[in-house]
Write a structure and sequence with these properties.
three-stranded antiparallel sheet; 2 helices
Length: 181
């Protein structure tokens, strides 16, 4: 039995979970999310305990793998509509800067042209200053994917440390060329 999958997902006050067939709809103060689960697992709402319960339909290897995954995805949806998710990025380098204008993230990160990244629907991107980017949203997967896509535009350089990195991320610096003695 999956240790994660067998724990019920508590439903906090102000959150409604409805299940129509295989589609799970979670609605809360920050927004609404939907997810269609696989047929190898069944999802039900236990109104007595005010929780969502995920159970396996089969005992196959795939069903065991999807048991914990489905429970984790439902839990992420509940957390997303109540608290939301946030990723913070730092830009380091001389002349490197970021700005948000009309739904587009503008980055100057050492290329000849300024990079224009359209912000996906459902995400809120702000730049408190020119060296920091804050990405917020209710969908954990969207927030993480957009943060990874922005970071991939200019990964941190292992020699000088210039580039876009997650806040608090440690970059292992390499030693440059050393003259022979």
């Amino acid at each position: 039995m999956s240790r994660i999958g067998k724990r019920p997902v508590p439903i906090p006050q102000g959150v409604t979970v409805t299940i129509e067939g295989r589609v799970i709809r979670v609605k809360g103060p920050k927004g609404e999310l939907t997810f269609e689960h696989r047929p190898e697992v069944s999802v039900s709402v236990d109104t007595a305990r005010s929780a969502v319960v995920v159970e396996r339909v089969q005992e196959t290897r795939l069903a065991r793998a999807l048991h914990g995954l489905t429970r984790a995805l439902v839990n992420n949806m509940v957390i997303g509509v109540t608290q939301g998710y946030e990723k913070r990025l730092e830009i380091s380098g001389v002349g490197y800067l970021a700005a948000v204008q009309k739904g587009v993230l503008q980055l100057r990160v050492g290329y000849a042209n300024e990079l224009q990244v359209p912000i996906p629907e459902g995400l809120e991107v702000t730049c408190p200053d020119q060296q920091h980017i804050v990405i917020r949203g209710v969908d954990k997967q969207k927030v993480g994917n957009f943060a990874a896509a922005v970071r991939a535009l200019r990964k941190p350089d292992p020699y000088k440390g210039k580039g876009i990195r997650y806040q608090g991320e440690h970059i292992r610096m390499k030693e440059g060329k050393v003259s022979a003695k």
